[in-house]
Structures are given as C-alpha cells and as structure tokens.
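User: Show me a protein chain along with its predicted structure.
Assistant: Here is one chain, sequence first, then structure tokens.
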Amino acid sequence: MIYSEKVMDHFANPRNVGEIPDADGVGEVGNAKCGDIMKMFIKVKDGRIDDVKFKTFGCGAAIATSSIATEMIKGQSIEEALKLTNKAVVEALDGLPPAKLHCSVLAEEAIKSALSDYYTRKGIDPRPLVGEIGVDCDACGCDHSHG
C-alpha cells in the first residue's frame, strides 16, 4: 500500500493528540469491523472551534485522517466544521488508498459526533444541525473485506 508523504507525516507526527478534560463536546465513533476507534474532544468559544484534540486507536491512516481533520477545523466556526467532508480530508492528505477511505469517513463522523454532543449539552437537538451519525462500513465505499 502506497501512502502519500502527508499521510506518513501525520502518522509519524500526529497533531492535536490527547484529550481536553473540560471539553464542550466529546464524540466517539468506531468501526467494529475494522477495529478503528476515534475519540474527538472540542472546546468552543464564541461559536468557533477554539481547541480540538483526538485519540485514535487504529491503523496509520486512521491516525493521519484524525490528525489532519483536527487541523482543518481548528479555529473554524461550528458551521464550517460541520461542512468538513471525508473527501476534503482525503484531498488534504493527497489521497488515500481505496482500502483506507473508510478512515476519512470515520474522521468526519468523529467531528460530527463531538459537535452533536456539544449541542446536546446546550439543550439543543443536534439532528437537524448535524444529521444522522453512524458509519456503516458496508456502505462506506471501501471495497475490502474486514478480517
């Protein structure tokens, strides 16, 4: 499997690793079939993502996608962060092998999950704003079988 230099860089030197103890939103998504688990912590200030950290248990691509996704939403408004797509994550990493595309879907879902938690804590129903969350690996477009 060939990975871009950016993927290797984010895997070797992941940005924003860790947790935020007093986070405003925490999201955890996992894929039981491939074993990747991502946990995302966000701090919101004046409607913007003031800080974001992640913990990922998974392959190099899962770590790289989490890392670049946190970089992409840091400092953005919640609305902008919600618009981040897995496609944008893949492009920012200069591509991912087809078998690893589901990792970028997980990164997008982890952000949405954290923002959903943020809204829930504020007493706002997140569904109209965030949409449904849940990675269905059969539908994620990765064409490999999960051992």
